[in-house]
Amino acid sequence: MSHQPVKFYQTGTFTVGNRLLGEEDRSVQARGDRSNALNSGHRACQGCGEALGARYAIDAAMAATLGRMVAANATGCLEVFSTPYPETSWQIPWIHSLFGNTAAVATGIAAAMKVKGKSDVRVIAQGGDGGTTDIGFGCLSGMFERNDDVLYICYDNEGYMNTGVQRSSATPAAARTATTAAVGPEPGNVFGQGKFVPAIAMAHEIPYVATATVADLHDLEAKVTKAMSIHGARYIHILVPCPLGWGSASHDTIRLARLAKETGLFPVFEAEYGEQKSALAIRRQVPVEEFLRPQKRFAHLFGAKPNVQSLARIQAQANRNIRKYGLLQEEGIHA
Amino acid sequence: MSMHKPFATTLDVGSSLANHTGSWRTERPVYVDRLPPCNHACPAGEDIQGWLFHAESGNYEKAWRALTENNPLPAIMGRVCYHPCESACNRGQLDAAVGINSVERFLGDEAIKRGWAFAKPTMNSGKRVLVVGAGPSGLSAAYHLARLGHTVEIQEAGPFAGGMMRFGIPKYRLPRDVLDAEVQRILDLGVTLKLNTKVANIEDSLKAGSFDAAFLAVGAHIGKRAFIPAADATKIVDAISVLRSMEGEEKPMLGRRVVVYGGGNTAIDVARTVKRLGGEPLIVYRRTRDKAPAHDFEIEEALQEGVMIKWLSTIKQAGEGNITVEKMALDEKGFPQPTGEFETLEADSVVLALGQDVDLSLLDGVPGLEIKDGTVQVGPNMMTGRAGIFAGGDMVPSERTVTVGVGHGKKAARHIDAWLRSETYAPEPKHEIAGFERLNTWYYHDAPKTVRPMLDIIRRQSSFDEVQGGLDETNALFEARRCLSCGNCFECDNCYGVCPDNAVIKLGPGKRFQFNYDYCKGCGLCVAECPCGAIRMEAEEI
Ligand SMILES: Cc1cc2nc3c(=O)[nH]c(=O)nc-3n(C[C@H](O)[C@H](O)[C@H](O)COP(=O)(O)OP(=O)(O)OC[C@H]3O[C@@H](n4cnc5c(N)ncnc54)[C@H](O)[C@@H]3O)c2cc1C
Ligand SMILES: Cc1ncc(C[n+]2csc(CCOP(=O)(O)OP(=O)(O)O)c2C)c(N)n1
Ligand code: SF4
Ligand code: SF4
Ligand SMILES: [Mg+2]
After folding, report:
1. How does pLDDT run across B189-201, given as a tens digit for each residue?
2. Are B334 and B248 in the same domain?
3. I want to staple A48 with a disulfide (CB 3.0 to 4.6 A). Which of A44, A147, A210, B352 is the partner?
4. Looking at the domain A32-331, which fold is it?
5. Ligand nearest the Cα atom of residue A42
6. Contact A6, A25 (CB under 8 A)
7. Which domain does B522 fall in, by range?
8. pTM for the whole structure
9. Atom 4 of ligand 4, residue of closest alpha carbon
10. Which of A34, A36, A40 best probes binding to B when mutated, by most B CB atoms within 10 angstroms?
């Protein structure tokens, strides 16, 4: 990891800031003059993880580039809640394109900057999981394969939330959505093959791939900062709980992101040129039920007759992640 | 704007700040200060979290000044207080309680080392208050009264100030230079101390000195006796006189084999003193270790030093050079019952440590007083039945500790101050307690408690050197920083960071935060992610 937890300062670096730490050890979000790239007045739901994750990431990128950056944004909540014409919450040069072509638009901007001799202006593409793992996937893969100088950030809320919570290829097994009803012998989303885009990005052997959640701010900021120090295609996949789509309490957004990581269901790691370099170790391991139970989209797994079979299969997914990505302290890869 | 352009490109870019999303809210977060359990448990009413906050940043003088707002004796407290704060500390449920007492001692010692003095009172009320007894309770009252601008005179029967802190608690737990330094600092406020001045009759003394009010804190000094049939030659003495004589020229002559009768802290202190004088102490107590009133850590330290203890035994008779004890057995209610089994033990003397009674003779003839079970009854304002005479410490019904005495002194001083102005003192209502369930402990680092060094066993058995050492700067700082800051903002920036709507305004170091209700949607993330429980959700009035 590129950041060192400072021990015994009451909270170390787990909290956003800490009055006992030097400024350099505090997060960008702790600064009084952070850029607030996504400003107040946006129309995201109460407790929206995507709005939070986007501000975390873009503020860090703004700090890393000293404000010399442009962002292209796919259609999705992040675009719709931030920019109803003619108002916008964005305090950066920002362009909305289409649902599926953001990576290509960002590639174009990067090329234009190069032509204009402004290669110091960095380019970010951002979109939801639908825009990234489904409809925008072709453009994204092309951007990777060409190693275009773009950081692509996917805000994964595990569904098409903007249009009313439909299933995406990032929707987890057993989750109820508008298109995966909780009926039949295997209620909710199917236990499919899975489509974990960070792994696919790694398969392109691009310079940098990382995952993060809104529950580990210092880790997220360190990854964005690192990504901005590299040229070429980079990909960061951030888990952003969605109270509306997940059926969770608005105050539980960060807790759920934390539990996704602590159960092993969402592996937090980074990779360079196709090889995993580090993993954020699980600190207080918990069974998957802890993550699932507070969410109404998984309510059908509990109740009087818990669906032990599905729960066991989800736990097996978590165990597999723990093994595969080395998520336990002893086994973890720590750079 | 050209008429040929499509509408969607004709408007200037507007800011979403025009959209006041605060109108969505049904609940609002508000910053609160909750009462940390440590503060709640402190008998002296210290704002522990408050002074630890300053110690955490290495500002020890500010920490000491915050501490002494409530308790003028931190170096003493840091040695003899039984720290109920630590039993209540929330961190105890995480790993181990914060070493509050050891940080307190560090601050107290630091103040002595650096010569920090109390700020002098800025006004004079023209009122005169008599304090009877220079034990912890009297000293605390004198300190607070002086700071409130009153003229204070302490009249003390003994040759030195300190009360049981000097004539009870042994040197190896409380070195006398520490006691002297903290007493002197109170006197430096302008408090008059008259030693060797026993108040025989309080009404006479009040009149003689034209005092407007009095605070009595004469303690409990008369050793309780038990009837033990004894041969003339047997030496039977009480524990308090033994400990008192340790402060004089003549050390007590108790012989080699000394039997101490009782199971309280006083029994332990006498036995450990005897050990240090070269004797062989044996404690005889009628119940079991877990039923003994002495604190277990004190029993443990005594055992380590070689003090012998005979549990479940009563002394039946004392002969020449020996005693006869009867073995006891606990009944189902836990009371000791005689078994008829006897044993003879070698004993050159017997020291009775069976508790103390209060000498109330100075109150003879005072009208309106209520005496119950040998103690003076006081109201919630610490005033006795005689208007203008207040009392506290061991002489009133309460737990008998230095810290309780200090707390009484403070409380009485505030009520005396109000009474002198013909007003009543109403303490501010207490905040709700910041229980463990209010915390989000995810954010705290694992950090084991720092253990204070102990003197080596040989010196503990043969000298009166202090047994427990103090922390040094680095580990005191570490220990202070283990505090979770329960219920009180410690400026971790979490609320400022986790708000998806930027609705938290950071006011800068020491100024905390403020909500911007124009944009706060009331999601409650700040409340859930505040580590210390300093934010509360309140229903919005509609
Ligand atoms: C051996 C022993 C060990 C103890 N250890 C601890 C401990 O580790 N921690 C703890 O918290 N508590 C301890 N205690 C209890 C603690 O010492 C007392 O609760 C505390 O000192 C009571 O304070 P006080 O001010 O009420 O009375 P005291 O400390 O007893 O002081 C009363 C003072 O009043 C004076 N006085 C009495 N009558 C008159 C008079 N008529 N005129 C003028 N002056 C008078 C006395 O000389 C004395 O100086 C211990 C007690 C004993 C006996
Ligand atoms: C080509 C096309 N198909 C469908 C839509 C409708 N649409 C807009 S946003 C969206 C879903 C967005 O989901 P995701 O990318 O996961 O973002 P989220 O809203 O969940 O953040 C859809 C289906 C569209 N705008 N364009
Ligand atoms: S639907 Fe979900 S992602 Fe969209 S604004 Fe609401 S909480 Fe955020
Ligand atoms: S953690 Fe700190 S504030 Fe909380 S109870 Fe312990 S000492 Fe007091
Ligand atoms: Mg989505």
Report:
1. 999 999 999 999 9
2. yes
3. A44
4. Rossmann fold (3.40.50)
5. 3
6. yes
7. 20-33+488-539
8. 0.93
9. B486
10. A40
